[in-house]
Amino acid sequence: MVNSAWSREESPFHAGEMAIQERLGVRTKMEAVGRRVIRAYLLDQHRQFFAQLPFLIAGTVDAHGSPWASILVGAPGFLSTSDERTLQVKSQPLFGDPFAKTLAVGIDIGLLGIELHTRRRNRLNGTVVAIAPNQFTVKVGQSFGNCPQYIQARSFALTDGVKNFTAPKPLHLIERFGTPERAMITTADTFFIATAFQREAGAAKGVDVSHRGGKPGFVRIDDDRTLTFPDFVGNFHFNTIGNLAVTPHAGLLFIDFDRGDLLYLTGTAEVLWESDESQAFAGAERLIRFQLLHGWRIEGSLPLRWSAPDYSPFLQHTGSWEEMARSLEAKPG
Q1: What whole-number distance in Å separates Cα of residue 259 and Cα of residue 123?
Q2: Chain-centre distance of CA 86, in angstroms?
Q3: Distance from C-alpha of 220 to C-alpha of 228, rounded to nearest angstrom
Q4: pLDDT tens-digit profile of 59-113?
Q5: Does pTM top 0.70 for this prediction?
Q6: Which DSSP state fits 39?
């Protein structure tokens, strides 16, 4: 195919993604786009990009079939590529990160390289092919760039904690949202979501991890185990929603950018396609509702500190839960 980056006969999209594209009338267009922008190798610019990052977001699935979103940290250069089809990660899981238990040779993994201060991001989905002390290697399955929509720009600085990732920190099992968790969630302008396409005998196939951004408070807590957030217009790949259509499980990662606290959650998730709320929430294409199974909150775990956010200009066209409530109250009847 002319100008095709995806040389395989099968589609770069799986059945769940294709079903959503078909439902929304963009299937033919996105097949052509996907074959043009999705690759089974890393472009030179992507290899350089990963090498300059201080952190990497990872999505994996545990032995019980629960997805988790994790964060790996290191001085720039901790990510490297010996060739265009492999990524070496020289780091180890932070204290309490579920990645310490999910990492194994042969697992599928979703990776997101995101540079907040430039709003650049690149996706890499693949397979872990080797593990050595304090490092592992991923074989590239798919690689593609993402637009800068909804990313809040922040500059970073590494702390002394980068010298000892495994030093114990206060760790809290989360089975319901308490006061600290509610504070992190309801003030968040950024979080990450991990999903998987399907599982066979406990193994995930096609794991993805994605960024979500919005105005502070764009995630609403409905009760002590349920939260809801808007799904804004994106690149029409429908990686997250395509996974949820087949396997309705998700892992969420919230970051306290001031204190370095991390909140890891896993549970079930569903897409709300036709609710009045999604139609009233400006900019929302639909809503996603998450039901907590359990999680962990680790205090001061992340050895990075950040500047105040420069909010994405794309947020100007999005609403808030307060605006949505007023809109619904004003509807006749």
Answers
A1: 27
A2: 21
A3: 5
A4: 999 999 999 999 999 999 999 999 999 999 999 999 999 999 999 999 999 999 9
A5: yes
A6: B
